[in-house]
Write a structure and sequence with these properties.
Blueprint (H helix, E strand, L loop, with lengths): L30 H77 L11
Length: about 120
């Protein structure tokens, strides 16, 4: 008889289906129910805090990203200005060298003995 099945008996599932299990506080005075509910409440608070922190971090990252782009653009502008003024300084140095050479040749040339006029 141990191997026989009784068709009159129904099979009852051991575990509830997904989404059907929702523990509810049966006795608000029972320490197990109070502890379970307290843990659930703490988990909810932790999840809300984590979501809030994540939102703030995303907002800050976006703000910093915009600031970084602006700073990089400003750096490119300053590098361009630096190159422009470096080129001007080099041209000015060439002019000064030429002017110095002309002064030396025209006014302090030991061979000429006198000033030349152009």
């Amino acid at each position: 008889m141990s191997g026989e099945r009784n068709p009159d008996k129904k099979v009852i599932p051991f575990s509830p289906s997904k989404g059907a299990f929702r523990p509810e506080v049966r006795d608000p005075g029972d320490p197990v129910d109070r502890s379970g509910q307290a843990i659930i409440d703490l988990l909810q608070q932790a999840a809300e805090t984590a979501n809030s922190n994540c939102d703030r971090a995303m907002e800050l990252a976006h703000k910093l990203s915009l600031q970084l782009r602006a700073a990089e653009e400003r750096i490119r502008e300053l590098e361009s200005d630096t190159n422009h003024f470096h080129d001007r300084a080099q041209r000015a140095e060439k002019w000064l060298a030429r002017i110095y050479k002309d002064i030396e040749e025209k006014f302090f040339n030991p061979q000429s003995g006198r000033f030349e006029q152009r």
